[in-house]
Amino acid sequence: MKKVLLVGIGLAVTWFGCGDKSTPPNPVAPTNLNVTAVVSTDNSGNVQFTASATNAVNYDFDLGNGIYQSAASGSLTYRYPASGTYSVNVIAKSATGLTASKTTSVTITVVQSMVWADEFDSPGAPNSAKWGYDIGAGGWGNNELQYYTNRLDNAVVSNGTLKIIAKAESFSGSNYTSARLLSRTKFSFKYGKIEVSAKLPVGVGTWPAAWMLGDNLTTVGWPACGEIDVMEHRGNDLNRIHGSLHYTGRSGGNPVTATTLIQNATTAFHLYACEWSPQSIKFYVDGNLYHTVANTSSLPFNQPFFILLNQAMGGNFGGAIDPAFNSATFEIDYVRVYQ
Hints:
The protein is mainly beta. The protein is 8% helix and 49% strand.
């Protein structure tokens, strides 16, 4: 009797175990995929995408500019930062992982508006709501010979322009003084266009610059934060304008850079500009494009950056200083940012 009972139990367990097995669902692919794109008429770059398909539970959008987003509902609003025609690929996914795709094209016109500016119209010290100072010697690794101060002697607004003045004088152990202004903690921006109208200083050894650094400078350091040099000029190489990018692996004397020659850099105001998007970083002088660099998600140029204006003396880039140097002025008419 015991043997019979044990066999019965074993059979019962086996029977119930077989009953727990479930049949996997049949693979089903999405069908009837439809995609619409409605471009905003206000030239903001906004596009409303709507995707629908039978048997779809999620939609992946390749927006045609290196950006990818997903939407379970199939509804997605995206703002393109730059004008252009973009090929958008939408992939619908079913619960079983099968897909269907469809491509559509959108043409975008983006009109940028000014979001920040300093016109330097108020005499005296630079506007403290917009600018702070880096103070100290050495140029933070560049072997520069000036001491940066926050004195009116080195940075002052008068007659509608900001004047950053480098001087030959003994100050806190340095033989030169100057100023380095920055908008860190006061203003930064991600993507857009920056314009700097400026007249450059005269003198061998001068090194004026209008540039930007990533907001995460204090956490990751330089060059990991990224650097965008909108304009650099060396007094020992008159009228040659440099536009450069620095980041890990392309820093110091190995930036991604290009130059252009202009006329009257030290006697006339010129417009130095950089246009920055998820796809590219472009450098201009007086509206003339001279340098384009592809931007990718692996580079540090996809975060907010703040602005710097300074005049260095000597250093790794500025070179030897004229022994007869007395003073030189880097004069900025305005800084404007558009998005």
